[in-house]
Amino acid sequence: MPEDLRGKSPDEVAKAWLGWVCQRDKQIRARLAQGEEDTLVNYMLFGTSFTKQPRETPEAWQRMHQKQENLPPGSAKKSPIEEAVLARIRDLVRSAREPGRNERSRFAALVFTRRGLDLKTVEGRAEAEEFLAASLSRVLKESESYASVLRQAKSLGDPTEEFARRSTLFSTRGLSLDTSWRPSFALEQALATMKAKGLIKPGSMRRVAVVGPGLDFTDKQEGYDFYPQQTIQPFALFDSLVRLGLSNKDGLKITTLDISNRVNAHLAHARQLAGTGRGYVVQLPLDPETTWTPDAIRYWEHMGDKIGSPVAPAAVPATLRSVKVRAIRIPPVTVLRIRPVDLNIILQRLEFPLSQRFDLIVATNILVYYDTFEQTLALANAGRMLQPGGWLLSNNALLELPDSKMKSIDYASIPYSNKAADGDQIVWYRRSEK
User: Fold this and answer.
1) In the CATH scheme, what is the code of domain 182-431?
2) Is the pLDDT score of 64 beyond 80?
3) Mean pLDDT of 39-61
4) How would you write the chain as a 3-class SS string?
5) Considering the chain, what percentage of its residues have pLDDT values greater than 90?
6) What is the pLDDT of residue 255?
7) Which residue spans of the chain are classified as CATH 3.40.50.150?
8) Can you give the pTM of this predicted structure?
């Protein structure tokens, strides 16, 4: 139980429950601001639209941070990569001051404004640079602490315990919206395995929910910023279900469940444009420095071809000319089959008749931001929104209480590349028939 409810009798918990839920919902939504500041750090480190500085790897930034911490106090010595960081910080603040049509720099300006920083003044710009430097230091320290937790979990020699610890890794971190095509690839592989085992029947997926579809802003892995912000998973899942014969393209409806106004507004705007006959273009970059698995390459080559058509991709900057990009235009009729709903899966659920409940809910890279108690609430809420026999797919190990209607059936381990630990475990949970 959470601290606010711990030690109370069942009757006391029942009386306090609604108040706790309302307060906790506000606290969870407040974590979005911290997540947006983390995203701004990623944009500063890996973006190319606001600077001419080289794009380094996450490992390089982490090494830089560790070396700087080992320098004597007051040392002014800086490595070339540290100089590049400072240049990137200055370039981002300059771009946020006059963002023009750069939607990501306009977002950066909003974050600075929310922090009370006035980019019109010399003092405000200096404070913004200090804020970015401090945020970078915080993010790198947090990354090292997460890596330490994972090393400790791995040292136990128990894959199940290691997976369980991974599943709550970000329970105190800001809620990040960043996403990529990789979790969608893992979902397609898991669904194909379930179909092959006879667990799901062809054409059986008609109503589907995506928890936390995310926005591809500037991910630290293969995300880039030379194309407009986009959401990927709702369209990728739609495509996978059609490709696998689990859904009929004309009968499938997908509902996205998210607490982010940015995500919900993005999808609502896409629907508005679809109502005027405009489709939605998904850009699919492929990191040239990663040795992807053959299955991952095949997925990237075909993602979207069952529901959309290829179009010319966004122009790749000269500094990233080795990056490959595919672009798929999703037709308006498909965009209109995706409906955004503001909902906190931890504390809320949609209430509708049994016949209208979901056949499938997916939640990847979402529940890792919550502790075990909150994950248990999410599992219960998912169960109440599913048809009897319906499925929840997640890359988290979720605690199953004895009286829970949701039970884990199996899982699939999907590697993305030849890098160590670069992959996902997708667990499928089934709602009991009763």
Assistant:
1) 3.40.50.150
2) no
3) 83
4) CCCCCCCCCHHHHHHHHHHHHHHHHHHHHHHHHHHHHHHHHHHHHHCCCCCCCCCCCHHHHHHHHHHHHHCCCCCCCCCHHHHHHHHHHHHHHHHHHCCCCCHHHHHHHHHHHHCCCCCCCHHHHHHHHHHHHHHHHHHHHHHHHHHHHHHHHHHCCCHHHHHHHHCCCCCCCCCCCCCCCHHHHHHHHHHHHHHHCCCCCCCCCCEEEEECCCCECCCCCCCCCCCCCECCHHHHHHHHHHHCCCCCCCCCEEEEEECCHHHHHHHHHHHHHHHCCCCEEEEEEECCCCCECHHHHHHHHHCCCCCCEECCCCCCCHHHCCCEEEEEEECHHHHCCEEEEECCCCCCCCCCCHHHCEEEEEECCCHHHCCHHHHHHHHHHHHHHEEEEEEEEECCCCCCCCCCCEEEEEEEEEECECCCCCEEEEEEEEECCC
5) 73
6) 98
7) 182-431
8) 0.92
pLDDT of residue 146 exceeding 70, the answer is yes
| Contacts of 274-279 spanning 24+ positions with Cβ under 8 A | 274/332, 274/333, 274/335, 274/336, 275/332, 275/336, 277/332, 278/332, 279/308, 279/329, 279/330, 279/331, 279/332, 279/335
| Strand 423-431 relative to strand 386-394, pairing | antiparallel
Percent of the chain with pLDDT over 70: 93
Are 302 and 276 within 8 A, CB to CB?
A: no
Per the model's pLDDT, the better-predicted residue between 243 and 433 turns out to be: 243
Cα separation of 251 and 248, whole Å? 5
